[in-house]
Design goal:
This protein is of the alpha/beta class and 127 residues long. The chain has a single domain, classed as Roll (2,3-Dihydroxybiphenyl 1,2-Dioxygenase, domain 1), CATH 3.10.180.10. Helices cover 26% and strands 41% of the residues. The longest helix is centred in the middle third of the chain and has 12 residues, at 61-72.
Amino acid sequence: MKIIVTSIFVQDQDKALEFYTEKLGFVKKTDVPAGKYRWITLVSPDDQDGTELLLEPNEHPAAKEFQKKIFADGIPATMFGVADVRKEYARLTEKGVKFTMEPTEMGPVTIAVLDDTCGNLIQIAQK
């Protein structure tokens, strides 16, 4: 068994699609109608057959509450791996991405946390 799709709640699918592709550099894999919303998945440009990230509308009241509370508590909704956190931090900062935590060493891992503008904090990590 392997993970093929994981999701992240977003407040606005179009805004999230723009942020995750234009700022973070993910590639859109799927974008099809799914009722009132769309089934939008993204993949890493380095692994386009790998795990897909679903931009899931936070329409359900429980999803909205969950998203709001973990954001308020400073808890990242998910984590993305990068080769060099400091380099990625500099690249994203140049693109206007706002960070809530600058690159920080935590034992064998260096992390930073960014605001995805769609209701989530995202942690980037370098092992």
